[in-house]
Design brief:
4-stranded antiparallel beta sheet; about 300 residues; mainly beta; about 45% strand
């Protein structure tokens, strides 16, 4: 009887150990990022691509800043022009009503275009002064918009706003407030779908930060996310952050805890990223003169 009892205890412990190991393997499998279809170049010969954003169907809109155009890469894998005169549009984003928001760097403002084509300037100044050069934008679940306002070029010492920071447009679109004061040159930003966390990459400081989003839209509890700055960002359903890291021809993917999970090499220096396609598992990468795509086992939330 003692022998049988010892055998049962040993068998039970072995079974528990096996189940724990299986659970661990399942967890690791879910967190692993796998490339399902290798990186491919979709289109080229642009001047400087930026601002990819997918509509509700999965078509991807992106900008060619110097050429003042906004393009669409359709689900049928064809390239179309959405707007001929974009006013130097950079970052783009679709809200829940499928209005297309744009950072028009050439006009130093934020605009919104409805599905029907109604075009409306939303933010043109702060404290009665024009912006430096609106760059990237993210819309929160309440309909408020966060955008960065850096400046590039030879006249960076001439800043209408005095410094380069991040701003928030209220959900009723009637007011603009500055929500950061200590950044150097913020560029890309992205928030979590629950509207609780905002990531801002500051290539001027070579760092990316995360903030808690308050109910009022203000930001608090600034924390260092990773010791890298970048240009644009995206996020997947597991909360992993996709960063076009400064000075590297690649997209680096970090866990919500800031752990580097995977690197996707790109022939050109990437500027921005966005998930698109019918299943939302295709990562579109704007990179200087081209548009690239890679298919992953992850789905985007933007």
């Amino acid at each position: 009887m003692k022998t049988i009892g010892c055998f049962l205890i040993a068998f039970t412990l072995f079974s528990c150990g096996t189940k724990t190991k299986e659970k661990s393997q399942v967890k690791e499998s879910k967190s692993e990022i796998t490339i399902l279809k290798e990186l491919e170049k979709l289109a080229g010969e642009f001047k400087f691509t930026e601002g990819p954003a997918a509509d509700v169907h999965g078509n991807v809109y992106f900008t060619d800043i110097p050429d003042y155009k906004i393009y669409i890469w359709t689900l049928e894998d064809s390239l179309k022009i959405y707007r001929e005169e974009s006013n130097g549009a950079n970052g783009l984003y679709f809200d829940e009503d499928q209005n297309l928001w744009a950072c028009e760097g050439g006009k130093l403002r934020i605009t919104r275009t409805s599905r029907e084509g109604e075009y409306t300037p939303i933010a043109t100044q702060y404290n009665e002064k024009e912006f430096n050069r609106t760059n990237d934008i993210w819309i929160n679940p309440k309909g408020g918009a966060y955008f960065t306002d850096p400046k590039y070029g030879n006249d960076q010492d001439q800043l209408p706003q005095g410094s380069m920071q991040v701003y928030y447009i209220s959900s009723d679109n009637n007011s603009v407030s500055r929500v950061t004061e200590d950044l150097i040159k913020p560029n890309g930003l992205i928030g979590t779908p629950d509207g609780k966390t905002l990531y801002i990459t500051d290539p001027g400081a070579e760092k990316t930060y995360q903030y808690t989003i308050e109910n009022s839209g203000k930001l608090s509890q600034k924390k260092l996310f990773v010791e890298f700055g970048g240009d644009g960002m995206s996020i997947d359903e597991q909360g992993n952050v996709y960063l076009t890291t400064s000075g590297k021809p690649q997209v680096d993917i970090f866990s919500p805890q800031g752990e580097l999970l995977k690197t996707i090499k790109v022939p050109e220096q990437p500027s921005n990223v966005s998930f698109g396609g019918k299943e939302r598992n295709q990562l579109y990468i704007t990179a200087r003169t081209s548009l690239y795509r890679v298919e992953l086992n992850k789905r985007g939330v933007n």
